[in-house]
Amino acid sequence: xxxxxxxxxxxxxxxxxAVGKGTVAGVIRxxxxxxxxxxxxxxxxPRPGEVDGVHYHFVTDAEFDEMIAQGALxxxxxxxxxxxxxxxxxPVEEAxxxxxxxxxxxxxxxxxxxxxxxPEALFVFLAPPSWEELVRRLVGRGTEGERxxxxxxxxxxxxLAAEAEFDTTIVNHEVHDAAQExxxxxxxx
Length: 189
What we know:
CATH class: Alpha Beta
Strand order of the largest sheet: 2-7-1-8-9
Shape: globular
Number of helices: 7
Structural class: alpha/beta
CATH superfamily: P-loop containing nucleotide triphosphate hydrolases
Number of domains: 1
CATH topology: Rossmann fold
Order of helices and strands: EHEEEHEEHEHEHHEH
């Protein structure tokens, strides 16, 4: 897609916790620099290895409140009954106006908000190969304690039930294959 084909169609990637949304987006970021990927704002603390402005914009509760008040978020939600996450509106609109393939990697609540305001976007559900594999990935990350894992698994059960709300599904058997399938979909738009 060239810069002159504006406006581009937004692609929204969502799926259950620990399915690998961030990992798929990371592969696309590394291997497909022509694809613009939104960086969400969050009030949660960084995990080991996460870089502010690359993985997320880590903000305080007060900063997040200000973003909401200014209408600066395309979508936002409380995730896992704890931290807030949101998509800054300006960079999304700018990437689309430039005609760049644009990707939002967000949670189900956020995808529903974007669908309400931008129904023309392509909504892609990233699914695990199985429930057992999703549990293995969540536990294997080692980034959450037992209480947080249980909260995320409870959330994941509801998120899996929402697959039918999406335009298409990609099963994340292997991260590079899933990333390539998503990029192919994006560039076909």
